[in-house]
Write a structure and sequence with these properties.
The complex is a heterodimer of chains A (224) and B (111). Chain A has 224 residues and is of the alpha/beta class. Chain A has helices spanning 16-25, 42-47, 62-75, 95-103, 124-141, 157-162, 172-182, 198-203, 207-223, and strands spanning 3-9, 31-35, 52-55, 80-85, 109-113, 153-156, 187-191. Chain A has one domain (3-223): Spore Coat Polysaccharide Biosynthesis Protein SpsA, Chain A, CATH 3.90.550.10. Chain A has a 7-stranded mixed sheet, sandwiched between helices. The termini of chain A are far apart. With 111 residues, chain B is mainly alpha-helical. Chain B is built from 4 helices and no strands. Chain B has helices at residues 4-25, 31-49, 52-61, 66-107. Chain B is elongated, with a radius of gyration of 21 Å. The mean pLDDT of chain B is 91. The chains are: A alpha/beta (224), B mainly alpha (111). Chain A binds chain B through residues 34, 50-58, 60-61, 64, 67-68, 71-72, 75, 166, 168, 223, and chain B through 86-87, 90, 93-94, 96-97, 100-101, 103-105, 107-108, 111.
Chain lengths: 224, 111
Amino acid sequence: MNIYIVIAAYNEEKSIVNVIKSLKKEGYHNIVVVDDGSEDKTYEICKKQGIYALKHAINRGQGAALKTGIDFALEEGADMIVTFDADGQHKADEIKRLTTPIEKGEVDVCLGSRFLDNKTKVPPMKKLTLKAGILFTKIFSGIKLTDTHNGFRAFSRKAAEKIKITQDRMEHASEIIDEIAKKHIKFKEVPVTIIYSEYAKAKGQSIFNSIKIVLKLVISKLAR
Amino acid sequence: MIQLIQVVVVLFALFAFSRALLRFKDRKISAKEFTAWTILWAAAIVVILLPGTTFFFANILGITRGADFVVYVSIIALFYLVFRLYVKIDGVERNLTKLVREISISKGKKK
């Protein structure tokens, strides 16, 4: 199985090397980092790591960067694609949990969930926002999930080809789930651990931003 | 008796029309767009010089005052224009992303 790890990175020079190292340690060598027009040295650092380093000339958002990475991985002949966060929130040794069910042919998509076991300590305000996101997903896409907006996902090649990401910014997370629902792609949720370091927390989504995301999604669904 | 507002509006409409005409001459806007702008500014001149004309249309639609009719039509037109702009900008954004993506993928071949 040719597994590609796709990472969207925006101003992550402080964390990206450790993330790449942890992935290599676990035996993943097809690593695609899409630098989304960072102002820092993210791209230059990645180029020296012996990985696929892509660069958006200008910032287009996480959704756009992930799609660039996924398109690239598909072109390179990936059998499976794992999306992974650049800020060190995810654990490389947990990738297997997401890829095994796909390898076995049970499902085509595995979504990481921080609420399936009690290992992740979610800050209270963050929990509230996420629970609202889960409810929103239920209404919006009709899928009941235990966690949404978790960037840790694995797709079979077939699923990655089917799922169309058109939302450039953070709305893509809901869009992916909406696509899974609409196209009846077989999926399952898998428990993963999210590490809430001070660094990752500062980079996360604020509640205000989450409200903006919901508005954008509703407008785009109406305009279609 | 000609009011100051009438002079101002007529002058502005003529100015705006001249801009549209220049854009049309430079082939920056199509004949269709130019026609639309011409009708709009001509209508503005007619309405401001002969306010009675608005009453005629207002009456047909069951609106009492001619001025109200103008305000309603203007707001509807503005909303429509904003919607058109929204759709257009959205398209431009998508194309921009596509372009950025193509460039980054074609440059990123080597490991």
